[in-house]
Design goal:
The complex is a heterodimer of chains A (410) and B (296). By secondary structure, chain A is α/β, with parallel strands linked by helices. Chain A is 44% helix and 14% strand. Chain A contains 16 helices and 13 strands. Chain A is globular, with a radius of gyration of 24 Å. The termini of chain A are far apart. Chain B is mainly α. Chain B has 13 helices and no strands. Chain B is flat, with a radius of gyration of 24 Å. In chain B, 30% of the residues are buried. The mean pLDDT of chain B is 87. The chains are: A alpha/beta (410), B mainly alpha (296). The A-B interface holds A 2, 5-6, 8-9, 12-13, 16, 67, 71, 74, 78, 95, 98-100, 175, 186, 234-236, 238, 240-241, 367, 370-371, 374, 377-379, 381-382, 384-385, 387-388, 404, 407-410 and B 9-10, 13-14, 16-17, 40, 42-47, 126, 129-132, 149, 151-153, 238, 240-245, 255, 258-262, 265. Chain B: Pfam families: BPD_transp_1. Chain B: InterPro entries: ABC_transporter_permease, MetI-like, MetI-like_sf. Chain B: It is found in: Cell membrane. Chain B: This is Sugar ABC transporter permease.
């Protein structure tokens, strides 16, 4: 009896083994992405079309939030796993390439293939290109409600005047029901256009932070004035609040990116897009950061599988697919050929979006950017809350950013 | 040992699969984390990480910020658990009376606990908004108070996160306490009433001692959960806002690991957190005699 009783152990062990080994058969191409819901629907359709045209090729797409995608991909990659393709914003290639989790694209594609993309969509880091871009942009732009204002302002002074005129306190309780301007002041990404309008930038050509500059002080002062001097923005204005107020017609202008326009359309808001207005004295255009979104290939993908993955990639980022995304979502294609298409040329949203990209500035993809964002964030917030003077904030940013980058490089 | 093994071979064999699983999913990560904490593993040293001894521990202990965050974590944990238990027992006592619609109240009161923390924290964050949040609107309407800058002041943001977590956490203690109360024999109260004990004395000398064996483990669990509760603090303060000041130890570590990829440093930090919690739980169990076997 005792001898036989050991057989009770067999089922759980078999189960463990079965779970561990997984099934056999043709392995699908795995893609991890961080797309918005609307984007995902269109993407699923593109995948379906490709699967129909290529019997036997299957895809397995997993969705993550931007932050989760980064941490999950790193964890999986370090353990020798992870997907064949990872889709996301260009700055994620910084840590991925440093950790050697992805392959340089320039060694896999021919010159001709690479030249098919807009040069400003290809990001270089350490002399290599690490992602096949699918769309260009991710840039901030001025979105204005055409029911509330008749034309987009041309200068920052006009922006303030226009906003003042439409900031309304209807019931006289001292809190306006409608504001002239809203945007996410708690993220430094939204401060960059103002920094560049006053002639500053976050780092020099050696990737050293240049945050303590007169331009930074001017930009922070400008932000502060929007709240305290002109009163054209709500006191606590994060992304959700800004977005909701614009959707409800309680804000006349918002500074936001391509990802948001679809929802404004859906909310029934009549809006126009315009370049962020220039700084009158210097004549400089604010330069929002411009980046691409694209696919990186996992470092384990080799041989026949690599050929398969590259072919799929070529189709997924085809001109026709990119135009499909552009027409439905307002994203800018990364392939040059797409811009010859009349559908793209005649679309007012895409035209304005491109006009903003032309004066934008490429977002650096180096890993130091994480420290720069993280250090700028509290300083900008403190200026906004009135607990720190712009000059002191700029000084602290520089000091802390240098220290943080050193810590990171350890 | 050997003789027990051979005597109880079958039970041990039955335990073997789960022991293996525990070994793989608990012990291995724990030891790996400890190894990480002694190494310089970071973004730039992924493939060439090597042991650096107690360097990470030294750096952490020498950081003045650690002690500020530690103090905040202690206050956060104490205040939360205090109100979780206080409100939990209070509400449980009300629910333990024979009142009309008890089932409805019970269902309503358990709602905060049944809702996903992420959604609750985001909702509360919206309610704490300076101009449009319902809390300031109600404070203004009912108490005629000026709006409170909940999320843009360091102390107030901390209080906001605490309020959110108290709301989220009391139903658990309520359910535990209610379960314990319902198992207290009614004869004890009857006997106390015959002896002329007041309501307070009945609570003090009957309810509380009978609750203790159940509440002691619940409180130690609650302490560990609250101490390590990343979600609420992280979401309500948007990762430490304003000005990166709203942190408890776990959010601080999370940032080191996942914003800056300082894996060795973060691992050392989590070992320290583990030791702090271990020390607390041992002390707590000892002083409350929770592990003493009942003699009958």
């Amino acid at each position: 009896m005792r001898r036989r009783s050991i057989f009770f152990l067999i089922p759980p062990l078999v189960f463990l083994l079965a779970v561990g080994c997984g099934g056999g058969g043709e392995k699908p191409i795995t893609i991890w992405e961080q797309m918005d819901p609307e984007e995902r629907d269109i993407f699923a359709h593109h995948i379906e079309v490709y699967e129909q045209e290529h019997p036997g090729v299957l895809f397995e797409v997993s969705h993550y939030s931007t932050d989760d995608l980064r941490t999950q991909f790193q964890t999986a990659g370090m353990a020798g796993g992870g997907p064949d393709l990872v889709f996301g914003p260009s700055d994620q290639v910084g840590p991925f390439s440093v950790m050697q989790l992805i392959q340089p694209i320039d060694e896999l594609l021919t010159h001709e293939e690479l030249n098919a993309f807009r040069p400003d969509a290809l990001d270089t880091l350490d002399g290599h290109i690490w992602a096949v871009p699918d769309q260009l942009g991710n840039h901030l732009i001025l979105v204005w409600n055409s029911d509330l204002i008749s034309a987009a302002p041309m200068t920052l002074d006009e922006l303030i005047e226009t906003a003042k005129n439409v900031t309304v306190d209807e019931n006289g309780d001292g809190v306006p029901e409608r504001y002239g301007l809203v945007f996410n002041v708690s993220e430094p990404f939204w401060a960059i256009p103002f920094l560049t309008a006053f002639g500053g930038w976050i780092m020099d050509s050696n990737n050293k932070p240049t945050l303590d500059s007169p331009a930074m002080v001017e930009a922070l002062q400008f932000l502060k004035d929007l709240r305290y001097r002109y009163g054209i923005m709500p006191a606590e204005c994060d992304y959700e609040l800004a977005d909701t107020m614009f959707k409800e017609g309680r804000a006349a202008m918002i500074i936001n990116g391509p990802w948001s326009w679809g929802a404004y359309k859906k909310a029934g808001i009549h809006f126009g897009l315009a370049r962020l207005p220039r700084e009158a004295k210097s004549g400089r255009w604010p330069a929002p950061m411009v980046s691409s979104k694209g696919y990186s290939i996992g470092n384990r993908v080799k041989g026949d599988r690599l050929t398969l993955v590259l072919d799929a990639l070529n189709s997924l980022t085809s001109v026709e697919n990119q135009i499909d995304f552009a027409m439905q979502l307002g994203t800018l294609p990364s392939r040059q050929a797409a811009y010859a298409d009349t559908r793209i040329q005649n679309d007012p949203i895409l035209r304005n979006s491109l006009a903003q990209v032309e004066v934008g500035r490429k977002m650096p993809v180096i890993t130091e950017m994480r420290a720069i964002w993280d250090i700028m964030r509290p300083a900008v917030q403190s200026v906004w809350n009135g607990t720190l003077e712009p000059a002191e904030a700029a000084r602290q940013m520089q000091e802390h950013a240098v220290a943080k980058i050193n810590e990171m490089k350890g | 040992m050997i003789s027990t093994l051979s005597k109880h071979r079958f039970p041990y064999l039955l335990l073997l699969p789960s022991l293996l699983v525990i070994l793989i999913v608990v012990l291995y990560p724990f030891l790996y984390n400890f190894w990480l904490s002694l190494s310089n593993m970071s973004l730039y040293h992924i493939h060439d990480a090597h042991l650096v001894g107690f360097e990470n521990y030294k750096n952490i202990l020498l950081e003045p910020e650690l002690y500020v965050v530690l103090a905040k974590t202690a206050v956060w944990t104490f205040v939360n658990v205090f109100f979780h238990v206080g409100i939990g027992i209070g509400v449980a006592m009300l629910l333990n009376q024979s009142i009309k619609g008890r089932g409805v109240y019970r269902a309503l009161l358990i709602l905060p606990w049944a809702m996903p923390q992420y959604i609750v924290a985001l909702t509360w964050r919206g309610m704490f908004n300076y101009q449009y949040g319902s809390i300031n609107l109600l404070l203004g309407k009912w108490l005629h108070l000026p709006p409170v800058p909940w999320l843009s002041n360091e102390t107030l943001a901390f209080i906001a996160a605490t309020i959110t977590n108290i709301w989220l956490g009391f139903p658990f203690m309520m359910i535990v306490a209610l379960g314990a109360m319902q198992s207290i024999p009614a004869e004890l109260y009857e006997a106390a009433a015959i002896d002329g004990a007041s309501a307070w004395r009945r609570f003090r000398h009957v309810t509380l001692p009978m609750l203790k064996p159940i509440m002691v483990p619940a409180v130690s669990l609650g302490t560990i959960w609250t101490f390590n509760n990343l979600n609420v603090m992280w979401i309500v303060t948007r990762g430490g806002q304003p000005s990166d000041k709203s942190h408890i130890l776990v959010t601080y570590v999370y940032k080191a690991a996942f914003t800056y990829y300082r894996y060795g440093y973060a691992a050392a930090f989590s070992v320290l957190i583990f030791l702090i919690l271990l020390g607390f739980v041992l002390w707590y169990l000892k002083t409350t005699h929770a592990l003493r076997e009942e003699r009958r």
